[in-house]
């Protein structure tokens, strides 16, 4: 068993070395090709498209938020009225399932609309374009605030827990404690996996993408490197309170 694990680790290390060498060679050849053909990426051309895409994704996510939350309320009503145990179980699952889908859609909408708002705002200030996208982004922000209100009301109905508009970490922890044991366990496992993937896959991949973007634009994306690095350090350093709390 131990030999099998060692062999797998050895293969994983070898694959990492080979992949690293391949990526290094690819970046080198790509850099040489771009320099020989004098290819440089004009970011200004892409910015309006990026803000527009974020805006569209934001509006789609807002629609999905209201749709899922409406379904959650519907199943909650059916759950309260139904006496059959089998149907009650189905309604119970669908009620919470749609509530969580709605929460995910709302969080996605918030990110997309904020991105659209700040990117289009930068376009107006720096490039003096994209006034329509900025106006629509403000409309999206209003819809997001309404979606948040609708979400919190749905949580109050389904989970019997009132969240304030500007919730503190303590409020969110209290809300988390209102979950049943199985749901808490599933959330903790998923949170651990997300943190692991961020730390080991997503953020390291971003370093490579930023480096590639630097090659395309001909400018070192220092701020992007610093931001990703700060996030990378933050998610690791913030494990310290947990260690101090549980390993006194």
Automatic annotation (TrEMBL):
Stored Pfam families: DUF3169
UniProtKB keywords: Membrane, Transmembrane, Transmembrane helix
Membrane-spanning residues: 12-34, 46-69, 101-119, 125-145, 192-216, 222-243
Descriptive protein name: DUF3169 family protein
Metal-binding listed as a keyword: no
């Amino acid at each position: 068993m131990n030999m099998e694990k060692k062999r797998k680790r050895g293969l994983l290390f070898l694959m990492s070395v080979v992949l690293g060498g391949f990526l290094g060679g690819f970046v080198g050849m790509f850099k040489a090709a771009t320099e020989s053909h004098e290819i440089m990426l004009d970011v200004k051309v892409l910015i309006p498209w990026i803000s527009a895409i974020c805006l569209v994704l934001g509006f789609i996510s807002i629609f999905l938020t209201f749709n899922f939350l409406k379904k959650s309320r519907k199943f909650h009503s059916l759950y309260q009225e139904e006496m059959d145990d089998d149907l009650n179980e189905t309604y119970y699952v669908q009620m919470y399932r749609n509530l969580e889908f709605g929460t995910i859609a709302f969080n996605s909408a918030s990110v997309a609309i904020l991105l659209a708002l700040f990117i289009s705002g930068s376009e107006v200030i720096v490039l003096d374009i994209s006034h329509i996208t900025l106006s629509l982004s403000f409309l999206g922000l209003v819809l997001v605030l309404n979606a948040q209100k609708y979400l919190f009301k749905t949580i109050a109905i389904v989970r019997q827990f009132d969240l304030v508009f500007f919730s503190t970490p303590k409020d969110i922890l209290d809300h988390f404690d209102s979950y049943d044991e199985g749901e808490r366990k599933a959330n903790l496992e998923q949170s651990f996996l997300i943190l692991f993937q961020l730390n080991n896959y997503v953020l390291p991949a971003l370093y490579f993408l930023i480096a590639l973007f630097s090659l395309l634009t001909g400018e070192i994306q220092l701020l992007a490197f610093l931001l990703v690095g700060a996030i990378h350090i933050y998610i690791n350093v913030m494990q310290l309170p947990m260690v101090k709390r549980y390993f006194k």
